[in-house]
Amino acid sequence: MPDPTNSRADVSFDRNRAKRIGLEEAVLAQHKSVEQIAGILSDAIAEDRRLLLTRLAPAQVAALPAHISARLDYCRDSYTAILGPCPVQSGPRQVALVSAGTSDHRPLSETRRVLAYSGVAAETIADVGVAGLWRLLQRESELREMSVILVFAGMDAALPSVVAGLVPSLVIAVPTSVGYGVAEGGRVALDSALASCAPGVLVVNIDNGYGAACAALRFLNAATAAR
Predict the structure, then answer these.
(1) Closest Cα partner for 61 from 81, 39, 85, 31?
(2) How far apart are CA 215 and CA 193, in angstroms?
(3) Which of 121, 149, 119, 124 is nearest to 22 (CA)?
(4) CB-CB neighbours of 30 under 10 Å
(5) Smaller CB count within 10 Å for the chain: N or C?
(6) Are 60 and 38 in contact (CB under 8 A)?
């Protein structure tokens, strides 16, 4: 039987990425074998290095050697795992995660975990889609206090445009794969977000909570450096 911790020949980890761009490399676990994931984690453990894994399915976690899986903080909602401690989140919250509905929860949870791994706390404002616009308007004053607002929406993804028309913050649209008929899969939501009439909306790929979090972190890092 092959050693599940000895499959690292095709992995060249970017250990200097945080110094170069301010963001650590994360491991996309989707499509990786359990042996590859175990090998990557074993290297990080041996080096006493933190690590973030995304798109890690429960079945992959269950198949890892027990001495490795026991060291992971695994979140089934977001399919993310964290090896090692997260920084203490301090100071006022500058980031809001806004979802149109509870069906958008998985990419939102992925974003929240990536931000937490980087020491950034986020306020979650869920289920405020445009089908009941009064729910969003009740939170408008709260949203106006945020530096970055990430908006998760499927269907026609009208919510990012509405939010960007109300507040001065950076708005990052995360189109999700939620929807019926032609909206299923998220392409309608992506096209709608890209075609937003609200000026300055940044758009990431479908269900890309990780990419959205990284965009927010780049903005916050740049703002901190400017101050």
Answers:
(1) 81
(2) 16
(3) 119
(4) 12
(5) N
(6) no
